[in-house]
Structure formats: C-alpha cells, structure tokens
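Page header: ASSEMBLY MODEL / two components / 394 residues total.
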Amino acid sequence: MNKIFVNNRILLNKEHDSVLDTFEALHDKHLLIGCRRGGCGKCLIKVLQGEYEVIRDMSQGNIDLKNNIVLACCIKPKTDLKITIL
Amino acid sequence: MAIKGVIRAGFMQLRVLDMEKSVHHYEDILGLDKVGETSDGRVLLKGYDEFDHHSLILRKADSPGMDFMGFKCDCEEFLDEVYEKTLAYGLECQWVDANSDQPGFGRRLAVKLPSGHRIDLYASVELAEKYPGLVSPEIWVEQPRGMSVKGFDHALLYGPELDKTVKYMTGVLGFHIVERCDKPDGSQLVYWITSSNKPHEVAFLEYDKPGKLHHVAFALDNWNEIGHAADLITINDISMDAGPMRHGVTRGYTNYFFDPSGNRNETYAGGYTYCPDHPIRVWDMDNIGRGIFYYERKLNDRFLAIVT
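Prediction written out in full:
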C-alpha cells in the first residue's frame, strides 16, 4: 500500500484508489470533494515527490503537468507520494 | 393557459473531456438516443419523448461546462421582436444561420446574457427521425434504455449580474419568476423562472465567475424512476452528488450526479404545475438547505461550490 504524505500526516492509499478517493475514504476534509471526474478543479494539488499515473482526463484550467500540478481525483500513486494541497 | 413567446427550454451544448465515455454515459446510462455526429465531431442526442431533431450536443474540449442553452419560441415573428428589444436593452445578440452548426434547426438568435451565458432563441426545428407516436399511440415506440430520461428539462446557471439577467429574461423574453432565495441584505441569491407550466425552465444564481453551469437536468416521470436512476448511478460507479431526494423548491424529486467530465447532471421528476397568476414563493438563507435538500435540510459542502 502506497503512502501519501501531506502536511505532516500520512494517508494509506488502497490499490485502485485515486489520491482523492483516499481523502474521501478517510473522511478527510482537507481536500474538497467535488465532481471526482476531473472537471470542477477543486482538488488541485502539487506532487512534490514520487510517481503517479494519470487515470482520467483533467480539465486544463489550472493544471500544469510539467510542474506536477494536477487534480487529486485524476491520479493514482505508483510509489509513495508527497503532496501539498493548493 | 396560452403559452406564447418562449415556450420551453430546448437544448444545451455541453463541453466534455472524453467523448467516448460521455456518449456511453448519456446514451447507455441516461438513455438518450444518439441522433448523429457533426462534421466537426460533435455528438447529437435526444430523449425518446422529444419531437425536435436533438436536445443535447456534446463537444470535446479542454474544459467542461456549457457552450450555450437553447429556448424554443412559438413563431419567427417573436424572434424579430426579441432582436429589436434585446438591442434596446443593451445586450449583444446576433443571428445564427439555419442548418449551420445545429443540423435540423432554423435560424437562431444568440444572446449574450449579463451572467456571461449565451442563450439561443429559435422557432423552427425539424421533426426528429424517431419521435413519440401520434396516432392512437403507445406509451413509447422503442423501449427506453437505462434511466429512461424523457428529454432535456432545465438548467441552473451561475454568473454575475443576476438582477440584470433576470430582468431581461422576464421583461424582454416574458419568463415568470416562480421562486427566489433572498440574502440577509435583501438582495437575491437565486431565481427559478419559467416560460411554461413547468415550475422552472432555467434558474440563475449570483456568482462571481461568468458563464458557469451548475447542472443540466433531464426529465423523469416519478419517484420510482428516480429510485431506478439512483440504482444505475451506483451500478455504473457514477460520481454521486446527492439523492434520491426531493426539493422544497418546486417540490420535485431528484438525483444529482456528475458526468465523466464533471458536469453535474440532475434527473428530475414531478414538481407542481405553475400558472402565471401564482404568487412568488420566497426562501431565505436560513431555510434554503431545506429548499434544495428537503429531507436532510442542509446542503452538502460541494452543492453550492462545485460548477463547471
């Protein structure tokens, strides 16, 4: 199980769950649960460390893949991830 | 009641991120029929209980949301009158040629609302290839699929300049205010307005960003169908927002969920019959939770905040 490090906390990511699914499963309100489908842009994060897979198309509004600024509902960790919520 | 001028909400062109997943969602799960594709790759759909050529257009884009919403009017002369009145009101508008970007549609008058939304007014549309029976008809011609939505019903639009927008919709286009929600300072947060006997054909909410879509709604017949739609939301792992439930506003039954691009959908059934002599129903901020989520009596975190 990959770990997600965020603001001095560690969340455990279940296989097949997106980063946002992990927050939602733990009832963690630090990330607003929006459309969960890459459209509304509310779950914007920056991945500081680790590898991830993009699992669905993201609205291009605020994301910046080169700088690992992505939507949490659209990525799945491939390794442990360190992230910050934007 | 003689319904004159604008007679109803008629279509919406929606932006989607993934066309294949979107067509599966709207065709197989909601149960709209695919009418065809345009040369630029947009997909046209309609409900089994609709007569017009199409009512939902999907366009692949980098970000979701709505391009424009159409309202059907009773005659071409009305469009000419609205053209003059719209210019006099101070809004931009322009004619769109018949059979141009919307196959089967006559000329349209595209109006840019103060809220940032584009609405298209039109009076002529070709009859669809498949439409409800007209002679001693059965209840449907082909057995409906999935959620069995009958067709496009209404939309909630978010944008600035709520008062100026609603004054145009009522003063120039002849819509009636059915319900509204007032803020503590006496200004309005939302208006639910109609041009027909339906309790809403469209609603507008005051919001800082222009041209936003809160939800596009499709019609169902009753509470049983709302339950069936909710079953299909779970079975198909669709992102759920809220429901099954009912509204205090309009008293309709509802589910809210998101399409594969994050556009919020509603399946809507029931609601009272509106007549233009009815007084306006008014909600305040202390009670609007019950107005939207009648059973839970409070909104969830995302309901007001999430738009495309």
